[in-house]
Specification:
The protein is α/β, with parallel strands linked by helices and 110 residues long. Helix content is 30%, strand content 28%. Strands 2-1-3-4-5 form a five-stranded mixed β-sheet, with helices on one face. Strand 3 and strand 4 form a beta hairpin. The termini are far apart. The C terminus is likely disordered.
């Protein structure tokens, strides 16, 4: 039964644009920052990213990028775990663009 279903799945359906994991966490307290955290993870996933939420502040194993929601207005700090470099962005759209520009869509280190 499963074999018939597996044949229906095309390889491109399983591909991910961003093979690197992105951890999203809220470093600011309050429901506004947590709401932004969930919204950011959703936006990243809709753009083909593998995004993991961190409710306790830990970085997911194997994450290349960490997105910290720094306040309830949506300001974010993006950290490249491989290099330690940090980028400040005002919102979700800018965060997604920065990840694309800095190699978030590549399998290896940027």
């Amino acid at each position: 039964y499963l074999e018939r279903l597996v044949k229906l799945v095309q390889p491109e359906d399983l591909s991910v644009r961003y093979p690197q994991t992105i951890t999203v966490r809220a470093s600011a307290g309050g429901t506004g920052a947590v709401k932004e955290m969930f919204g950011m993870a959703k936006e990243l996933r809709e753009n083909g990213c593998t995004a993991e939420l961190s409710l306790n502040g830990d970085v997911a194993a194997g994450s290349r990028w960490v997105v910290d929601i720094t306040d309830k207005s949506g300001k974010m700090t993006i950290t490249d775990v491989a290099s330690g470099k940090k980028y400040e962005v005002p919102g979700t759209g800018e965060a997604v663009r920065l990840l694309e520009e800095r190699g978030g869509s590549q399998a290896g280190p940027a």
